[in-house]
Amino acid sequence: MEIQNPIFEAVTIQPKILYYGTPVILLNTLNEDGTVNISPISSSWALGDCIVLGLGLGGKAIENVQRHPECVINVPDPSLWENVERLAPYTGKNPVPDFKKQNGFLYGKEKYDIGGLTPTASIAVKPSRIAECPIQIEAKVKHIRIPDHSPMFAIVETQSVQVHAHKEIVTGEHHIDPRKWGPLIYNFRHYFSLGKPLGKTFRAEI
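Structure (tokenized):
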């Protein structure tokens, strides 16, 4: 017998996208001529020093990391959402692939200028960092896999090698204060910030 709870009634849906609320990343990768491409992405997760990225095939970011396996994972805060959105319609691919043209993308190489952002030198990798982003993670690409069930995307495993953070969000020597920092959230193609703090887990160190 099927048991239903009228308070928590659910319906079956088929959403086009499943961006159910993840941090926005500005991914810096190295172009062939040594310049830097900036790609807004919204699929990532971290465990230890491993950061896994989801990248669409046919874009400049995946092309770049396949050729030069380094990147910078820049994490913007909510104040930068308009900078992110300025970058969103542009691709570093020239000519623009047909599937991107159909979705309104334009070619744009000077991504720092387009986004109104500032480059700053990295320590351990060639792509530069974005000075405005409160968290900047230099990383090495360790493995790239294209899933059989989703052949339009690549799962890119990276290893963090240097982490930079704005001084105002750091407490002590190595901790980021969650009361002073919050990521920009991409929630079903809308930008959000975090709400008020609710509490903390037993493993929290600050």
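The chain has a mean pLDDT of 94. DSSP finds four helices and 16 strands in the chain.
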